[in-house]
Every structure is written in structure tokens, then in C-alpha cells.
User: Which sequence fits this backbone?
């Protein structure tokens, strides 16, 4: 199996993690990405200890210390009074209890880190401007067909092409993504124009109110605030990560929030305010055909209320790479990978949804520590993708 040719569709966080894991293990890989370049896109991401352990396994722990921020305190807070309803110890506490930090990091920085490492182990293996449009599954090879007329044959395919995965459609049929009932705005705000009162001991906070959540955290050595502002709504929003929106719309939607939140929103660069409609899919019991499988959002798009989207994609990538390394057939890879990942991903999907309902449905005055059953309380941080038995 060491000589098999593997194609990865999608150079997002999940696809790049799988690529790095396999390249480090000496596999021949090719990554195909639809975007014209691997550029600086996105905003902040949370990498929880379960995923950090995967990055440590890949030798990227030191680099994460440099690009990520490990805030000491995270809190669920009242939207008007700013009172911390549920304080959550992070920082060193994570390292001591789970063996790795929780980081908050710009998506582009972790993406760059993965690209750089991949380039060291498998130079030139990423082809941009290649949008997959079809898959021809033969008994002994898989043919990939791209929108630029290019074709490529290989032995095994990993579909890491996000929520609207073309690989998923090709192998499992088109179960259309469903609108989750939330839209979100995100912004990255330079902190140099903000007041002292716009900062406090809580480096990462989710301010909750009926129907809305405003989550903000500092990234890039506190030079920027990243925020995501969620609104529960029946109105559909176009899906995509880079749909421009207006700062005034966010400000209006959160007009009854505390002044700190409003100051942060007001400081959003006008060209840097984006919205996205959050789409999910029903969890499924099978992610693969004979020689093709899925990971990350292509396999299990999540509602982002436990900050596990990137972390679960990192877990998938590391675990799949380990399984490919010591399997002796494609059916063994598929069987072991699905056994290792599907149940966990269903659990996280279900609880991410519940977390959103708790945050946006509750009267914040009635929200208690007991209501809070999120990523740490559910035990997600104990998982170690580099060492879990698979
Ligand atoms: C541009 C962008 C910005 C994002 N910004 C944020 C953010 O600010 N905060 C946050 O929490 N999450 C963000 N996310 C989502 C987050 O990265 C993912 O939810 C999570 O990391 C899971 O990653 P993934 O690799 O499974 O999917 P994704 O990160 O969605 O990556 C999928 C990749 O596949 C490519 N692709 C899709 N279809 C095809 C095709 N047919 N052929 C070839 N390539 C294809 C996409 O261009 C993309 O690069 C963003 C995702 C994208 C794509």
C-alpha cells in the first residue's frame, strides 16, 4: 500500500491536515483545490486541545505556540451586563489537564503553517484552479474530472471539499445541505483603535441573548479581535464564506448589547464584514465508497457553537493518515476510518446543535453552569488523534 497514489480534493484545514499526515508518512499525494490561489481567507478559528494534540503529532506544536493565542479565561456572558455566567478556565489549565493548549488563531495562519509543512514533505503537490466536477470509479482506479478539462487517475480519493462537497454527491448522491436557522456575521477588527474598556480578563467570550450570540476573541498577539455574531432566523442567507455585509446591519442587530460589543462591531473595517448562512446535513452512517472517503465538513458539517469545525477536520485528517499507513487494503482503510470517526462526529454534530439552542433560546438571566454542557463538559478534549487506538 505504500506505493498507492492518493488524491485529496479541497485544500482547506481538513484536506491540508490529511495531506501533511500522509506526506510525512511518505505517501504520494496530490491535492486539488478549486480556488485560484491559496490566499489569506477567513477569520478566527478555535483549535481545542483534542485538535492541538493532532498538530503536535505532526510536529507543529511549537509553531502553534507562536501563531495561536491560548487565553486563560473563556466565558459565557450576559449580553447586557457582561456578567460572566459560566467561567471556563483555559490557558495552562488545558495543558495540565489534557496535555495541550486551546488556541485561537487566524484561519490563514494555520493554513499557511500546513502549506509550509506540506511543501517540505511533498513539494508542488497542490494544484489550484482545479474544481472537481466528476468521479469515475473503476474497479481498480478512480478517475477524477475537473472543470478545466484536466483528468487525473489515482488509487484512493479523500473528499475534503467542504459543506457542498462534490465528492460526497458523486459517491453518495445529493442530500442537499439544510439551512440551520442561523446566519452569522464575522469580522476581524484591529485593536489599536479600541478603548481600554473594550478589553478585559476574558480573552474569549460568548455574550448570549434570546435569538443571538456574539462571540469574540483576541488573535494575533491581541492585535486583532475576531468576532462571530449569530442570529437565529428563518430567513435564508446565501451560503459561502465571503459574502460582503454591512457593519450597520450587524450594529442594528446587536443594538441592545453592551457597549464593548458595539464598539468592537463599529470598529470593523467596512470592507471586512462578512456574513454566511450556516448549513448542515443530517448525520449519515456511511461516508465512503470502495476507494473514496470524506472528511471534515464534507462528511459532517457542524453548527459552529462548540467551535469544533476545524478541530474535527484536523482529527479526521490525522486519524485517516494513520489508518492508511498501516492498512493492507482499501476496504480495511474504509472500515477502520468509519469505525473510528463516525460515532464521534455524530455526537459532536448533535451537541453542537444543542449548544446553539441553549445559547440562543435561553433567557440569559436563567442560564446556569448546569445548563452549560459544551465541548469540555462533554469530554471532547481528552481525545488524542495521534494516539487513539484505531
Ligand atoms: C474560504 C473559507 C473561509 C472560512 N473562514 C472561517 C472562519 O473565519 N471561521 C470559521 O470558524 N470557519 C471558517 N471556515 C470553515 C472552516 O475552515 C471549516 O468549517 C473547518 O475548518 C472544516 O474544514 P474543511 O477542510 O472540512 O472544509 P473547508 O475549510 O470548507 O475547505 C474545503 C476546501 O475545499 C475546496 N473545494 C470545495 N469544493 C471543491 C471542488 N469541487 N473541487 C476542489 N476544491 C473544492 C474549497 O475551496 C475549500 O478550500 C472557512 C472555510 C472556507 C472555505
Assistant:
Amino acid at each position: 500500500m505504500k506505493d498507492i497514489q492518493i488524491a485529496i480534493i479541497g485544500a482547506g484545514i481538513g484536506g491540508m491536515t490529511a495531506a501533511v499526515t500522509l506526506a510525512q508518512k511518505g505517501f504520494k499525494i496530490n491535492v486539488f483545490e478549486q480556488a485560484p490561489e491559496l490566499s489569506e481567507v477567513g477569520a478566527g478559528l478555535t483549535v481545542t486541545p483534542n485538535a492541538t494534540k493532532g498538530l503536535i503529532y505532526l510536529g507543529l506544536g511549537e509553531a502553534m505556540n507562536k501563531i495561536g493565542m491560548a487565553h486563560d479565561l473563556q466565558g459565557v456572558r450576559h449580553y447586557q451586563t457582561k456578567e460572566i455566567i459560566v467561567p471556563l478556565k483555559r490557558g495552562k489549565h488545558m495543558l495540565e489537564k489534557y496535555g495541550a493548549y486551546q488556541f485561537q488563531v487566524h484561519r490563514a495562519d494555520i493554513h499557511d503553517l500546513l502549506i509550509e509543512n506540506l511543501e517540505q514533505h511533498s513539494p508542488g503537490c497542490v494544484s489550484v484552479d482545479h474544481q472537481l466536477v466528476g468521479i469515475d470509479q473503476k474497479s481498480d482506479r478512480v478517475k477524477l474530472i475537473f472543470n478545466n478539462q484536466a483528468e487525473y487517475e489515482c488509487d484512493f480519493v479523500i473528499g475534503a471539499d467542504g459543506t457542498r462537497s462534490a465528492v460526497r454527491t458523486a459517491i453518495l448522491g445529493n442530500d442537499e445541505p439544510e439551512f440551520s436557522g442561523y446566519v452569522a456575521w464575522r469580522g476581524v477588527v484591529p485593536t489599536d483603535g479600541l478603548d481600554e474598556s473594550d478589553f478585559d480578563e476574558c480573552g474569549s467570550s460568548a455574550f448570549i441573548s434570546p435569538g443571538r450570540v456574539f462571540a469574540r476573541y483576541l488573535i494575533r498577539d491581541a492585535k486583532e479581535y475576531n468576532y462571530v455574531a449569530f442570529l437565529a432566523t428563518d430567513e435564508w442567507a446565501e451560503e459561502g464564506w465571503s459574502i460582503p455585509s454591512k457593519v450597520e446591519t450587524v450594529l442594528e442587530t446587536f443594538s441592545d448589547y453592551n457597549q464593548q460589543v458595539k464598539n468592537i462591531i463599529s470598529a470593523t473595517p467596512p470592507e471586512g464584514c462578512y456574513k454566511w448562512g450556516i448549513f448542515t446535513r443530517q448525520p449519515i452512517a456511511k461516508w465512503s465508497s470502495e476507494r473514496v472517503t470524506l472528511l471534515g465538513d464534507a462528511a459532517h458539517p457542524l453548527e459552529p457553537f462548540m467551535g469544533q469545525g476545524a478541530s474535527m477536520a484536523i482529527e479526521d485528517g490525522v486519524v485517516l493518515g494513520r489508518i492508511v499507513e498501516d492498512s493492507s487494503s482499501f476496504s480495511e482503510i474504509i472500515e477502520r476510518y468509519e469505525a473510528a470517526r463516525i460515532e464521534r462526529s455524530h455526537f459532536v454534530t448533535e451537541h453542537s446543535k444543542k449548544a446553539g439552542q441553549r445559547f440562543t433560546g435561553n433567557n440569559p438571566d436563567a442560564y446556569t453552569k448546569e445548563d452549560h454542557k459544551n465541548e469540555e463538559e462533554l469530554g471532547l478534549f481528552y481525545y488524542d488523534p495521534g494516539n487513539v487506538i484505531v
The chain has ten helices and 18 strands.
